[in-house]
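for the writeup, i need someone to sanity check this before i put it in the appendix. the sequnce is what the collaborator sent (i think, or maybe the updated version? ugh). structure was predicted straight from it, no edits. if anything looks off just tell me and ill rerun, i have time this weekend
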Amino acid sequence: MSDNAAKKPVTVNLEWLSDCGGCHVAVVDLHEKIEKVLDAVTIQRCPVLTDIKGYPKARVGLVSGAIRNEHDRHAAEAMRKSCDLVIAWGSCAVYGGIVGAGTVHSRSDIFDTVYVNGKTTATHTGPSVEVASFEKMVMPIDEVIDVDMYLPGCPPHPAFVFDALISLVEGRAPKAGKRSVCARCNRIMKKTEIDRIKSSSEGIPDPRLCFLSQGYICMGSVTLDRCLAPCPTNGVVCTGCAGATMQVLTEPNRDIRTEIADRMSRLTRIPRQTIIREIERTAKSHYSYTMASTMIGDKPTFLINKWLKDAEAGYE
């Protein structure tokens, strides 16, 4: 690469589909590092910063959010056409994210809850006909367009955002690895006499001991590290926001609930099946970031509709 080519800023387009906008805030959270990024890239389109409606030609496209409606599909396709490289940015873009919870509810149920029976909805009518039509299913963006790089996280930690952008400028692979959140957690796994599952709001966890050893369902061991483990480090169980580890995603018979249950049952006196049943009962929470992904949704072990019916029936 010539010196002139190396100094030429990389053009970047950003797009925001169905998500909360936290991934865009993560760019601002680069703090002083953003100056280095801005020296190396030229942000042409960014819904949270600019009022540009079109899609200018760009080297890199950062697309956050899931495909939930016709507008999302159109925007994702426009980004793919205008950008040489597309990054699925954040867990909603990579896996469908929390938007994917809509997968287990009908459109009529969602509209009735949000518009007709919503406590803060004054008109108590359905959504405007001007609202973009829902897609049949919630989808990660690679169900609609080709993706060149995946950067999960809710949002990805600024360190990973910075590295991803700079790696593109420098023409190298990003440093993000395949380690789990547990790899950055200093808590000690230890066999205990705990014999029941605790609620995350119950008691004050021992800061030195693994949450699983204490009876708390923590997803750190089955979650990809794109956050630097701030939750377990600060006394909060991991909720799996960066998505499942590659081991869980790529092996058909490995599942979030069974992997956690295997570890937790060895560390406590809680029966493995009891742990599995509890995770199934709260499946919309424990699978909330990844259930729209075919890597989870198509697994023969993923039976969320059955689990929800069982939970409603009050099984033990």
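The chain has a mean pLDDT of 88. The longest strand covers residues 10-16.
thx in advance!!
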